[in-house]
Amino acid sequence: xxxxxxLFLLFFTVLSLSVLSGCVCVxxxxxxxxxxxELEVEGAKLSxxxxxxxxxxxxxxxxxxxxxxxxxxxxxxxxxxxxxxKEMENIPMIADTMxxxxxxxxxVYIPSLISxxxxxxxxxxxxxxxxxxxxxxxxxxxxxxxKGNF
Length: 150
Prior knowledge:
- By secondary structure, the protein is of the alpha+beta class.
- The protein has one helix at residues 2-24, and strands spanning 39-42, 51-54, 61-67, 74-80, 83-84, 98-102, 105-110, 113-118, 127-135, 138-146.
- Strands 1-3-8-7-6 form a five-stranded antiparallel sheet, with no helix packed on it. A five-stranded mixed sheet has the order 2-10-9-4-5, with no helix packed on it.
- The termini are far apart.
């Protein structure tokens, strides 16, 4: 009797694990495939290290980011010169839309697209803007290096 109970428990455990693993890795799940985020940039060049370099600009400079392999691209954090943007604290991580105006520019977010507008950098230092990005269980970042105008 103990052997039958043990075999039944083993069978039930294996069956449960196979059903659960099949449910977790459904191919139609757009934000849970765990593949690295593939970014597309329009209006700027993205280097292999996820860095966008912006030379001296005299007027606003706009470009967009989107993921080519996920339907939603979330912004988890924005920091400028290693300081986290406080305005991000009031925005839910998985917001449907977002608009953020800062002294260095603005960010407009919809689930599949992030539009970034940079204002001229009227200093002599390079401005470093980091964006933390997430798609389900995949994480990435983009670093913008904006040269100073002086």
